[in-house]
Specification:
- This is Branched-chain amino acid ABC transporter permease.
- Keywords: Amino-acid transport, Cell inner membrane, Cell membrane, Membrane, Transmembrane, Transmembrane helix, Transport.
- It contains eleven helices and four strands.
- By secondary structure, the chain is mainly alpha-helical.
- The chain has one domain (about 1-295): ABC transporter involved in vitamin B12 uptake, BtuC (Orthogonal Bundle).
- The strands form two sheets. Strands 1-4 form a two-stranded antiparallel ribbon. It has a two-stranded antiparallel sheet with strand order 2-3.
- β2 and β3 form a beta hairpin.
- About 40% of the residues are buried.
């Protein structure tokens, strides 16, 4: 039972991060029908930008409180990623809106490689230690189950952000404009919606979520690297497909479910395979789920709410 509860905690933590990143994928797909494979690399840019900011603050203000340092680092990382998301949409994707779907897909992969290469040039190939500004000393709420303050912070912050996004999309004029643009670009434009602005804002919001997720991911694992965005991005895409890409609630559900499956798989994989595999093979569960969903339920757990534009 202790192993079960511990893996439940671990799954909720990593699933919260996957859900934040998956929201960026599903928002862009809902608006454009585009899978932005460069989205995962915004996670990396957010983490490394925050790291660079922390290093600067430690040099100029070594007595600054950890909470203030983390807040300032986020206030730098989020605008950097938002600007990068806007630039990606404006320069890489806008001209390809009416192109065959393969063209923007290949472009997204190219943008991903470009971002990784630029990050490698700026921050180098080495792994960087990410400062643990929030305590990682575990507490034991239940005998045999350990939870760290950073894990609690990740889950609570993710829940608040996801709730705020749902309110933004469902209760505001911007959200109404986003839903109208997702339904039909041309009709929304005829009704007075600035679809170019709405699409750009969708990329910007998704990039902000990716920046926050990147800082969470790096804080939880204590490392940052120019290639760190690839695997979380791929798993977040799997989470979006699992929940129903184009559906915000589905992206959140898919992220949490995938995190739980991956965590429980890591905890019990040795028993399931009679010692043939160990926890280092936990990534296989994400791809097994992706394959099963695409074969048996391509619309995902909650279905796709986006109209077919074929």
């Amino acid at each position: 039972m202790e192993i079960f509860l511990q893996q439940l905690v671990n799954g909720l933590v990593v699933g919260s991060v996957y859900a934040l990143v998956a929201l960026g994928y599903t928002m862009v797909y809902g608006i454009l029908g585009l899978i932005n494979f460069a989205h995962g690399d915004l996670v990396m840019v957010g983490a490394l930008t925050a790291l660079q900011t922390m290093m600067f603050l430690m040099g100029v203000a070594p007595g600054m409180s950890p909470v203030a340092m983390l807040t300032l680092s986020l206030l730098v990382a989020i605008p950097v990623c938002m600007l990068l998301g806007f630039t990606m949409e404006r320069l890489a994707y806008r001209r390809l809106r009416n192109a065959p779907r393969l063209a923007p897909l290949i472009t997204a992969i190219g943008v991903s490689f470009l971002l990784q290469t630029l990050a490698m040039i700026i921050w180098g190939r080495n792994y960087h230690t990410f400062p643990q500004l929030i305590s990682t000393t575990p507490v034991q709420p239940i005998e045999g189950v350990f939870v760290t303050p950073i894990q609690i912070t990740i889950v609570i912050a993710s829940a608040i952000i996801m709730a705020a996004l749902i309110l933004l999309v469902t209760k505001t004029k911007l959200g109404r404009a986003m839903r109208a643009t997702a339904e039909n670009h041309r009709v929304a434009a005829l009704m007075g919606v600035d679809t170019n602005m709405i699409i750009a804002l969708t990329f910007v919001i998704g990039a902000a979520l990716a920046a926050i997720a990147g800082v969470m991911y790096a804080s939880n694992y204590g490392i940052a690297h120019y290639g760190m965005g690839f695997m979380p991005g791929l798993k977040a895409f799997t989470a979006a497909v699992l929940g129903g890409i184009g559906n915000l609630g589905g992206a959140m559900l898919g992220g949490v479910v995938l995190g739980l499956v991956e965590s429980f798989g890591a905890g019990y994989i040795e028993q399931m395979t009679f010692g043939f595999l160990n926890s280092s093979y936990q990534d296989i569960f994400a791809f097994i789920i992706l394959g099963l969903v695409l074969i048996f339920k391509p619309t995902g757990l909650l279905g796709e709410r986006v109209s077919d534009r074929a």
